[in-house]
Structure prediction request, 78 residues.
Amino acid sequence: MKKIQIVGPGCARCEALARNAETAACELGIEYQLTKVTDIRKMADLGVMATPALIVDGAVKASGKVLSVEEIKKIVRD
Prediction:
């Protein structure tokens, strides 16, 4: 099971990234758990300096931008 985290304050860009991540996981047909991290201290602990950020299985894969569904699919597959 892939552990996907969306890191950010809950803004529209964060929500768009979350939707794209869910769509990507569903299109790939993988089992996943999506969580949102909105606490500023936790964001810093995770090493995220720009939001929104995408973390997959504990590794920061992107920050500061909303990735497309196709970009996320590539990241999740690797």
Q: What stands out?
A: The chain has one domain: 2-77. The chain has a mean pLDDT of 96.
